[in-house]
């Protein structure tokens, strides 16, 4: 059987087992939600991880969303892309065993086995002296971001498979930190009236609203 590699696919799938099927419809955006399985598919709809994984890069910034194709060999994006710079240190998201380490096509790839049929892969990742069977612990340096990324700019592609079926990595990692919007004039003290109460907005009465003569408020 020939090996089929789709654009943006997790290449180790072909290298390790001759190709994996894909479960789930396309999941747009980076929402923290499970991909619904396609009709008749028996792929897992939710992860079996007992705890959320830590992010391999800090701070995490998703620049490419997961999008499972409607059929095993259709185009899609079987993972997420994290913004990265070449040489950035990549750490283990949880305790795991090295399942695969090597070069696939033109990219250095590392795959971890988390148990219960869950694998995670990282590319391009130049592993730091790791070999198949080595144990790694959460937060342990795995290597550095290498060359050969499929992004237009530098990035780290992260993929997850459960029993051979691709799943959104966002289901396994810690939730992304929410953006905090600061006031336009952050740090500037707001004016207060003599009585200690904030001054009324310009153009509006300071006291209770009164019905103007000749019209009624609705």
Automatic annotation (TrEMBL):
Gene Ontology molecular-function annotations: metalloendopeptidase activity
SUPFAM superfamilies the UniProt entry points to: Duplicated hybrid motif (SSF51261)
Keyword annotations of the record: Signal
InterPro entries noted in UniProt: Cell_wall_metabolism_enzyme, Dup_hybrid_motif, M23ase_b-sheet_dom
Chain spans, region Disordered: 188-218
Domain M23ase beta-sheet core as annotated: residue spans: 76-169
Presence of keyword Transmembrane: no
Keyword flag Signal: yes
Name assigned to this protein: M23 family metallopeptidase
């Amino acid at each position: 059987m020939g090996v089929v590699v789709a654009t943006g696919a997790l290449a180790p799938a072909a290298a390790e087992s001759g190709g994996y099927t894909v479960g789930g419809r396309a999941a747009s955006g980076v929402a923290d939600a499970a991909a619904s399985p396609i009709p008749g598919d028996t792929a897992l709809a939710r992860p079996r991880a007992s705890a959320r994984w830590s992010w391999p890069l800090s701070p995490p910034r998703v620049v490419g969303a997961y999008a499972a194709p409607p059929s095993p060999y259709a185009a899609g994006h079987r993972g997420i892309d994290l913004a990265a710079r070449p040489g950035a240190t990549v750490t283990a998201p949880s305790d795991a065993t090295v399942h695969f380490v090597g070069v696939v096509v033109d990219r250095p790839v590392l795959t971890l086995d988390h148990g219960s049929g869950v694998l995670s892969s990282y590319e391009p990742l130049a592993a730091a002296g790791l070999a198949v069977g080595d144990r790694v612990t959460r937060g342990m340096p795995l290597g550095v971001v290498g060359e050969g990324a499929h992004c237009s700019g530098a990035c780290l592609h992260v993929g997850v498979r459960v029993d051979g079926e691709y799943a959104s990595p966002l289901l396994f990692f810690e939730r992304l930190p929410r953006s905090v919007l600061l006031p336009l004039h952050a740090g500037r003290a707001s004016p207060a009236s003599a009585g200690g109460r904030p001054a009324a907005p310009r153009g509006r009465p300071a006291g209770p609203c009164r019905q103007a003569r000749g019209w009624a408020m609705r």
